[in-house]
Design goal:
single chain; 323 residues; alpha/beta; 29% strand
Length: 323
């Protein structure tokens, strides 16, 4: 949700910029960027459906991603916290599949192309253009910066620690910063995480945000291990026979599409503050079929997924493709 906001600092940002910047230097100074965005509320905190009746509104001068959305996966936690050998590979495959099907009208990402930005008198629409830049695993055990245990007792990491981990990964891999790149931090099983008083499982399942590092904008998403509590964060259908990965992929799609359409929290959201994914959270529509492990409603690059819908102003409702 756009307005489930926790003020954690303010910094200047580069509005409308799409070019990649140089990798953040070692010892980068981080300035937290305003608030949590696109919060996937845990199922028991889900917003009532009558909030979803209004279309998204464009807020003058707001920024969207009009070029290629480059994604990167960061896995954080010791090997014991990733007991499922397929968890990382399935998530990486999803990023690759979404990139491989760039431009196709058959999945939820194409829906973003109806949205646009108007900056300095120039209007530019979003293109369905995805690229997966790679993954990196930090097998260290995080130190606890918070005390909540709703997501597990291995550690509890704050939003600030998530941002520091993103900079660590950027430095280790020479990855770029700038608003065309998004870093997804996938925490291991048993790692709790909080942003202020809002915490994984007890309140949320994922969120996205931005911060400034050495003068460059950095986009990121906090992606806890949904399999720790499937009743709160599970998708309910697991077509890849991996409940944790399938459920995390669902909320990954939510955060990715919200970043594309509202990466700084100043572009597309409705009058109540809900972004494109918030309005369709936990709404999976009608399945296309079942593959023996579970129902699926998306076929992306030949692989089955079960994803929530995304809001379409054209249809004034949730959609899963351009049809």
């Amino acid at each position: 949700m756009h307005r489930l906001a926790i003020v954690i600092g303010v910094s200047s940002v580069l509005l409308g910029a799409q070019a990649a910047f140089a990798a953040a230097p070692s010892g980068s100074r981080i300035h937290s960027q305003h608030r949590m965005l696109g919060v996937v509320r845990a199922r028991n905190h889900a917003v009532k459906s009558y909030y979803y009746s209004n279309n998204l509104l464009y807020h003058a001068g707001g920024s969207v991603q009009t070029g290629t959305h480059h994604t990167y996966a960061i896995y954080w936690g010791p090997s014991s916290s990733f007991p499922d050998s397929g968890y990382q590979s399935l998530i990486n495959r999803f990023f690759g599949d979404v990139a491989a099907d760039s431009g196709k009208t058959s999945n939820v990402y194409y829906n973003d192309t109806q949205y646009y930005q108007t900056i300095n008198g120039s209007t530019t629409h979003i293109a369905y253009s995805e690229s997966f830049g790679g993954s990196w695993w930090d097998s260290s055990t995080p130190s606890s910066g918070c005390s909540n245990t709703s997501g597990g007792r291995l550690a509890c990491v704050t939003d600030g620690q998530i941002q520091q981990e993103v900079v660590k990964a950027i430095n280790a891999n020479g990855w770029p910063t700038g608003p065309s790149n998004e870093y997804f931090v996938f925490l291991g099983n048993g790692i709790s995480t909080c942003s202020g008083s809002s915490c994984f499982v007890s309140t949320f399942c994922a969120y996205h945000g931005s911060f400034s590092s050495s003068g460059a904008t950095v986009l990121y998403a906090n992606m806890p291990y949904t399999g720790y509590n499937l009743s709160a964060c599970g998708s309910g259908q697991y077509p890849n026979n991996d409940p944790a990965a399938d459920s995390t992929i669902n909320v990954t799609s939510h955060e990715a599409n919200e970043t594309i359409t509202d990466y700084l929290g100043n572009a597309w959201f409705d009058r109540r503050g809900y972004e494109i994914g918030d309005k369709c959270a936990w709404n999976f529509g009608n399945p296309l079929g079942s593959d023996g492990y579970g129902e699926y409603n998306q076929v992306i690059a030949g692989h089955d997924y079960y994803l929530q819908g995304e809001w379409s102003n054209h249809h004034s409702g949730c959609v899963w493709s351009n049809t």
